[in-house]
Amino acid sequence: MFRNAYLLLILTTLFWGGNAIAGKLAVGHISPMLLTTLRWALAVLVIAAIGLPQLRRDWSVVKRNLPLLFLLGMAGFTMFNAAMYSALTFTTAINVSIEQAGMPMFIFLANFLLYRMGVSPGQIVGFTLSLVGVALTASHGDLTRLAELDVNFGDALMLAAIVLYGGYTVALRYKPAIHWKSLMLVMCFAAFLSSMPFAAWEIATERVTWPDTRGWMIVVYTAILPSIASQAFYMRGVELIGANRAGLFINLVPIFGTLLSILILGEAFHLYHAIALVMVLGGIWLAEQSGRKRAAGS
Known about the structure:
Distance between the termini: 18 Å
Number of strands: 0
Order of helices and strands: HHHHHHHHHHHH
């Protein structure tokens, strides 16, 4: 069970790391709100092709939980991605990487405040170790650069995105026990509907950038992997090992983002990348071992 959860969560963060790269590549080729709407529109079409029969079987349960599923789709799918894509047009990748690393801490804090869910010393140490690794990557090996970062509008948007996705992660405990196809189809449709007003505003205010060839390629990528595969994998991972333990894997996102930048954008690989990778993976392993022991002892 644990190995399945780890594989699913690693693939999730790999695709999410690619989502951040796609968001950066999208600048000038498709505007943020239009990208958000088109990715969920395509995701709905893909998942509907394989999930409609299952949704019919689950409809009685889905119908009772429509408000919750709509809110989950709006917060975790629409609002998070719209905020992140918008943030990437205002702030640097360094800032976004650091800010994403705060998501597991928000999940820990929310679970403690709302459900009095404790955190073991090993989890705190593991989280701290992985956070330092992320900061090392984000600062390009020079931690003193962190003191020079300013919070601008893009940073504020990314912080809002973190709160939204952290809240979404914690709220997944309330999702109904239905097939993942039905869950994804309803939540993707909710994301599409809730994103339409933002795209309409972008068009009405002449802020829209209509997609060119690269823009459409980004739409396809974000619809298939970050939208469908990652969300399904993440929900299953949370189901298998819980929000606190699954949330820690989010610290892999900036690491994968760095590695994908090297492969796709041709950026150089430095020693601090290797050190940070070891620290993040080591921190996740330490926190997960401690979390597993805590879960077994409770």
